[in-house]
Structure formats: structure tokens, C-alpha cells
Design goal:
Elements lengths: L4 E5 L2 H10 L4 E7 L2 E7 L6 H8 L8 E7 L5 E7 L2 E8 L1 H7 L1 H6 L3 E3 L13 E3 L14 E2 L3 H16 L13 E2 L4 E2 L2 H7 L5 E2 H15 L10 E5 L2 E6 L6 H10 L1 H4 L2 E3 L6 E6 L14 H11 L3 E10 L2 E12 L1 H10 L5 E10 L5 E11 L5
Parallel strand pairs: 4-7, 7-8
Antiparallel strand pairs: 1-3, 2-3, 2-9, 4-5, 5-6, 10-11, 12-19, 13-14, 13-19, 14-16, 15-16, 17-18, 18-20, 19-20
Helix pairs in contact: 5-10, 7-11
């Protein structure tokens, strides 16, 4: 099952601008309460989250919830809803999916699932069993094809770019360790692969950083916690209380248990830190970056994301391309960036996300893209 891309807007003007910037062949617009939800794709895709919302009658007074379902042996579906509206959805192997939804699963009181709760281990006590959705009615929750000459003409011009943004995964068998009579020669690429899971997945770090800032926006005034940084394998937010009363602060922690579990006391003035541990990177899955890199750079340029400090390091037959991205814009662009870098071969060791206003953010993110570049 292929999921549609989702973008949310609060005016028709914003919607029209997005349609011009990101043309597609398949689309559906859902308007509800002055909000426009644009589902789009370059190929047929499903609105599975909307189908789940309708089937399980998720409403605006239900708060935030997570839905997780096993689709087959290798693929799991996950979605987060807030007050009956889909925030995001993914189809991934179970280990990756749990990483992606770790913050949400930690925060919500219940996880809806038609799958046996024992599969969730850590979150088993929060799983609420629901009936599986009836797939026979899914036909009405598919994107409609935009069947006109203009759309076809536009798509012809951008097809190469969009296709290039999908990771071309090629599995390579690691070279066998060469054994001599008294010495073992280890390929440096194998040594790299053996320690690869100590890296931090970039997309997961960026997504959870946005989640943390969403929570700290609700801190009791005049408390400030407007910047998330990556420190080792943890995302941290320094909290400055600015004289807020201890009673007010303690009451906020009681009312927000998902955040109180992450809070650590700090200096003598009562300032502290929220610290969110990130999960480990999954096993090494190399891919050919020959076409991916120029397509990624082209997409970043279109989004007005500044790229600097580009470097390349060769380890055996693996090449790591490192770059620093900076931007100052709304949350929507950060979510688009997250989708662009959502690949297990892309890691990060430096991230700073700062809220400059209720709708504006600055981001500095170092990416390392590990793979094979052929033809060099």
C-alpha cells in the first residue's frame, strides 16, 4: 500500500501556492472548518489514515491518539491523530516504526491497534484493542487522478526530480574478512558497518525535536524553553523559569506527565532540562547515492534551504557525504525536509531547532549520507 503525502493549510491562497510548487498526478483536497488538507502523490496512493478516522469514528474531543497495525510480516502502519485529525502516518518495518512513533507512544494514554498487544512490549499496557478496518471499502479512500493536459505537461518537467528523491536501495553483500596465517585483515567498510547503529537517524531526530518544541510552547509563562539541541543520543531543551512560582511549575509537571518524566533539575535558580533519548539507528542498508545527491540538493535549493560545509569521506567502498543545512521558516518546510531525509542511510550528529515565534523556526542540521557513488 502506498500512502499519499499530506500538507495542511489554513487558506486557499496557501493551498494554491503549494499546488504550484508541488504539482502531482494524483490528489484529493479535504476541506473542514476552514482547514484544507491536501493529499497528493505522483502515483496512485491511499488515504489510509482518513479511512481509519472514519471507521473508528475519531472525533475532535478525543485528544491525541496513536494507531498501529501490522499489515504483513515485514510492514507495519502507524498514525498519530490529534482531536480527530491525522497528523502523520508511515508504513515501515516494526523496529523503524516504533522509533518514529516513540515520542507519541510515550505521551498518549492509549494506542489503538487490531494487532496483539504483546507485539508492543514496552507499550503493551497502553494498547486498546480495536476491530480491523474493512479493506473492501478502501476504494473510496484513494487519490483521484488529475486528468488534464496542463498537469501532464507540468509532471513531465519535474518527474526526474521527484523520482530522484526516492532512495534507490541496493543491497550489497559485505566483503568477507580475509584471513592470513597469522593476521586478520578487516575491510574498513566492514568496520564501519559493524558500528553503524551507534549513529543517530536524522529524520527521527528532526521529527522528535519538533515534537519537543510543540510541548514546550505550552510551558507556564514566563518560563522559556525555545531551543532543542542534539547532545550525543539525546535531544535536550534548556528551561529558564524566569521567576515562575514553584507551585505553578509543579502543577504543570503534574498535569503533563509525559514531559515531567523527561525533566531534570538544574542550577540553584531552579532551571533545568528536558532530555529525550533517541533510539539507535537500524542496521546498515547501503544504497547508490549517485542520483540521490544531486536530486536532494536540487530539492533543498527549491525550498531555499542553505547548504554549507559539504565534505566527503571514503571508508573502503562506502562514501559519506556530510553537509550542514540551515533555514528560517515555518514548521511546514521542516516537515517537508523530514520527508526528504527519511532514510536509514542518513544520520546526524548536530541539530539545533529554535522557535523564534509561534509560527517561525530556525534550524541548523548536519547530515551525513552514507552510500556508494558509482562512476567516480
Amino acid at each position: 500500500m502506498k500512502l499519499a503525502n499530506l500538507a495542511v493549510f489554513f487558506s486557499k491562497k496557501e493551498l494554491k501556492r503549494h499546488q504550484k510548487q508541488f504539482p502531482c498526478q494524483y490528489e484529493r483536497i479535504i476541506e473542514e472548518g476552514g482547514t484544507f488538507r491536501r493529499y497528493h502523490s505522483i502515483e496512485p496512493a491511499a488515504l489510509y489514515g482518513e479511512w481509519i478516522k472514519a471507521t473508528h469514528q475519531l472525533h475532535s474531543d478525543q485528544g491525541r491518539c496513536v494507531y498501529i497495525e501490522r499489515l504483513n510480516e515485514n510492514a507495519w502502519y502507524g498514525a498519530t491523530f490529534d482531536n480527530g485529525q491525522l497528523l502523520y502516518e508511515h508504513i515501515e518495518p516494526f523496529d523503524m516504526l516504533i522509533q518514529t512513533f516513540a515520542y507519541d507512544c510515550h505521551r498518549v494514554e492509549s494506542i489503538l491497534s487490531p494487532t496483539d498487544a504483546d507485539a508492543f512490549s514496552t507499550y503493551a499496557e497502553r494498547v486498546v484493542s480495536v476491530e480491523p478496518v474493512e479493506m473492501a471499502w478502501m476504494d473510496s479512500y484513494q487519490l483521484a487522478k488529475i486528468d488534464n493536459y496542463l498537469a501532464a505537461k507540468i509532471m513531465g518537467g519535474v518527474a526526474t526530480l521527484v523520482v530522484g528523491l526516492y532512495v534507490l536501495a541496493y543491497l550489497f553483500m559485505p566483503k568477507e574478512t580475509q584471513t592470513l596465517e597469522q593476521e586478520v585483515i578487516v575491510d574498513p567498510a566492514i568496520a564501519f558497518i559493524q558500528t553503524y547503529n551507534s549513529n543517530v537517524p536524522a529524520a527521527n531526530a528532526l521529527m522528535n525535536a519538533t515534537h519537543l518544541l510543540a510541548e514546550t510552547a505550552l510551558l507556564p509563562l514566563p518560563t522559556k524553553g525555545d531551543s532543542v539541541t542534539l547532545s550525543g543520543r539525546n535531544l535536550t531543551v534548556a528551561v529558564t523559569k524566569n521567576g515562575v512560582s514553584e507551585n505553578t511549575w509543579q502543577q504543570w509537571l503534574i498535569n503533563t506527565p509525559s514531559m515531567s518524566e523527561l525533566y531534570r533539575n538544574g542550577d540553584s535558580n531552579g532551571n533545568g532540562t528536558f532530555s529525550f533519548p533517541l533510539s539507535h539507528q537500524e542496521r546498515w542498508q547501503p544504497f547508490d547515492v549517485t542520483h540521490y545527491l544531486p536530486s536532494l540538493r536540487d530539492a533543498l535549493k527549491r525550498l531555499n534551504i542553505v547548504v554549507s560545509d559539504s565534505k566527503m569521506k571514503v571508508t573502503g567502498d562506502i562514501t559519506s557525504h556530510t553537509m550542514t543545512l540551515t533555514l528560517s521558516d515555518g514548521l511546514g518546510k521542516i516537515l517537508v525536509l523530514r520527508e526528504l531525509i527519511d532514510n536509514p542511510a542518513i544520520t546526524t550528529d548536530s541539530l539545533t531547532l529554535t522557535r523564534t515565534s509561534m509560527s517561525e523556526f530556525t534550524l541548523s542540521l548536519t547530515l551525513s549520507i552514507h552510500g556508494m557513488t558509482h562512476g567516480n
